[in-house]
Amino acid sequence: MLAMIVEFRIKAAHVDAFDAAIRCNARSSVDDEPGCRQFDVCRDPDDAALFFLYELYDDEAAIQAHLQSPHFLQMNVATAPWVDAKVVRKLQRTQP
């Protein structure tokens, strides 16, 4: 399995809209993508503009399917102007 770790810093005026959009994307990913096993959306309790995603995929093909899914593409285009910073990491899951 592969884990995707994504950290977003969102512009203050768009925090609530981004929260709604990313949670919708997460639900669609888990519900509609067979290779997406988990998609957690987290926020820093002391910094509402800082989001952290933890996603688990079966393999690289599942990640690529996610990146080409209509719900991801729509969300990515809509939210891109709201993002101040974004860091993406891909890790090999070793446990369990």
List keywords for this structure.
four-stranded antiparallel β-sheet; about 100 residues; Alpha-Beta Plaits; alpha+beta
Verbal overview:
The protein is α+β, with helices and mostly antiparallel strands and 96 residues long. The protein has a single domain, classed as Alpha-Beta Plaits. Helices cover 39% and strands 41% of the residues. It has helices at residues 15-32, 60-68, 70-79, and strands at 2-10, 36-44, 47-57, 83-92. A 4-stranded antiparallel β-sheet has the order 2-3-1-4. The termini are close together.
Q: What series of H and E elements makes up the topology?
A: EHEEHHE
Side-by-side strand order of the widest sheet: 2-3-1-4
CATH architecture name: 2-Layer Sandwich
The amount of helix comes to 25-40%
Sheet-strand content, in percent, reads 35-45%
Indicate the radius of gyration in whole angstroms: 13 Å
Summed up, the domain count is: 1
CATH class: Alpha Beta
The parts where pLDDT drops under 50 for at least 5 residues are none
Mean pLDDT: 97
Classify the secondary structure makeup into a structural class: alpha+beta
| CATH topology call | Alpha-Beta Plaits
Number of helices: 3
Number of strands: 4
**Cα-to-Cα separation, first versus last residue:** 10 Å
Shape estimate: globular
Tell me about the biggest sheet?
4 strands, antiparallel
